[in-house]
Amino acid sequence: MKVTGSLSAETEVCVPASEAWDIYGSGKVVGVVVPKLFKQIDVVSGDGSPGTILEVTFHPGGPPTYQEIIHTVDNEKMVKEIDIYKGGFLDQGFNLFRIRWDIIAKDEKSCIVKLTLILDIKEESMANLSHVSIVPFVGMMTTVNNYLIENHKD
Question: Which Pfam families does the record associate with it (predicted)?
Answer without folding.
Answer: Bet_v_1
